[in-house]
Amino acid sequence: MRVVIAGAGLAGLSCAKYLVDSGHTPIVYEARDVLGGKVAAWKDEDGDWYETGLHIFFGAYPNMLQLFDELGIQDRLQWKSHSMIFNQKEEAGKYSRFDFPDLPAPINGVAAILSNNDMLTWPEKIAFGIGLVPAMLRGQAYVEDCDKYSWTDWLKLHNIPERVNDEVFIAMSKALNFIGPDEISSTVLLTALNRFLQEKNGSKMAFLDGAPPERLCQPIVDYIESSGGEVHLNQPLREIVLEEDGRVKNFRIGGYKDQPVKDIKADAYVSALPVDPFKLLIPNSWKDLEIFQKLDGLRGVPVINIHLWFDRKLTDIDHLLFSRSDLLSVYADMSVTCKEYADPDKSMLELVFAPAKDWIGRSDEDIIQATMNELKRLFPMHLLGTDPAKLRKFKVVKTPLSVYKAVPGCQEFRPSQKTPISNFFLTGDYTMQRYLASMEGAVLSGKLCASEINVSELNDK
Ligand SMILES: Cc1cc2nc3c(=O)[nH]c(=O)nc-3n(C[C@H](O)[C@H](O)[C@H](O)COP(=O)(O)OP(=O)(O)OC[C@H]3O[C@@H](n4cnc5c(N)ncnc54)[C@H](O)[C@@H]3O)c2cc1C
Question: Which of 141, 376, 384, 455 is 20 to 30 A from 107 in CA distance terms?
Answer without folding.
Answer: 141
